[in-house]
Write a structure and sequence with these properties.
Blueprint (H helix, E strand, L loop, with lengths): L1 H11 L3 E6 L1 E14 L6 E5 L5 E6 H8 L5 E5 L6 E8 L5 E8 L7 E2 L7 E6 L8 E2 L5 E4 L19 E7 H8 L8 H8 L5 E7 L5 E4 L4 E4 L12 H14 L9 H10 L11 H11 L1
Parallel strand pairs: 1-5, 1-9, 2-6, 8-10, 9-11, 11-12, 12-13
Antiparallel strand pairs: 2-3, 2-4, 6-7, 13-14, 14-15
Length: 291
């Protein structure tokens, strides 16, 4: 399996990549839980002396993960202050207590994307409006994320007129796609999802503790999760998507094309959100410990 990673690193090094999508500013404020207010059903927290942590998430994080693996990576995105997610987290365990979102998307307009200069084009649609008016040709790699802000309104079907090289979804997004609550994804369901307004060559799906699967409409491949000392799972799906896009673009053997995305996603759960990026050195060291 280390040979697969080395082969991927060698093939990816000359790729020119474009990432299009929303950059999300992730803020983390450490607090201490002090109990519940005596006069209302409201939890009470106390600020600590720790400084607020600020990270680039969303499309910005995807760029960070890929830049050590490819020749160049460029980003078309919103400005830094339009989408901010502030999380109040426990001082010791980093458990999230509450999240406050600030989204100013009124300024998002028509954006025409010239993809001719790139080997790989990645569209990361987090459902905050930046991608809604994109003018872009077919053949890109797509993630159309469902989250608390857009649940039920940011479905893959909105991109059905575009032919995609690959699509990456999670189990909840798959459920919305076929209007059926899925607790797991059988082979037959994977094919059904693939054939329902996805319009892509390669479909990758992350299944939580059940790992991940890949299909091109016929063959189904699966990859169990790599167990890690989890600090935070926020951003792991974006990490998986970033590397799945490269695997699809490079036409890596379908028997092995889930290995690196799954390994990179597992690695990214060992730090808080996007405070670090995946690099070749980190990925190889992690692989040596877990394969």
């Amino acid at each position: 399996m280390i040979k697969v990673i080395n082969n991927f690193v060698e093939k990816a090094k000359d790729l020119r990549v474009l990432v299009v999508g929303e950059t999300i500013i992730d803020e983390f404020i450490e607090v201490v839980y002090e109990g519940q207010s005596m006069k209302s059903f409201c939890p009470v927290f106390r600020y600590t002396d720790s400084e607020k942590q600020i990270q680039n998430g969303g499309a910005g994080a995807i760029v960070g993960h890929l830049k050590d693996f490819v020749k160049s990576v460029e980003l078309i995105t919103n400005s830094n202050n339009e989408i901010v997610k502030t999380r109040f987290v426990d001082k010791d365990g980093k458990k999230k207590h509450i999240e406050l979102n600030k989204i100013h998307n009124s300024g998002f307009g028509n954006i025409e994307v010239d993809t001719s200069k790139y080997d790989v084009v990645i569209v990361a649609d987090f459902g905050h409006g930046f991608c809604d008016k994109l003018k872009i040709g077919s053949g890109f790699h797509l993630m159309c994320q469902t989250n608390s802000n857009n649940f039920g309104f940011n479905r893959l079907s909105k991109w059905k007129k575009h032919t995609k090289q690959s699509v990456c979804i999670d189990l909840r997004e798959a459920s919305l796609q076929i209007n059926e609550r899925l607790d797991e994804c059988s082979d037959s369901k994977a094919v059904e999802i693939y054939n329902y307004e996805i319009n892509c060559d390669d479909l990758f799906a992350t299944l939580g503790v059940k790992g991940a699967l890949y299909t091109e409409g016929n063959v189904i491949n699966r990859q169990p999760i790599f167990k890690s000392n989890i600090v935070d799972t926020i951003g792991a799906g974006d990490t998986f998507f970033a590397f799945a896009s490269l695997m699809s673009a490079l036409n890596i053997d379908s028997n092995n094309n889930l290995l690196i995305p799954s390994l990179a996603a597992s690695l990214s759960t060992t730090w808080l959100c996007n405070e670090q990026s995946v690099t070749k050195e980190k990925l190889l060291n992690y692989a040596n410990q877990h394969i």
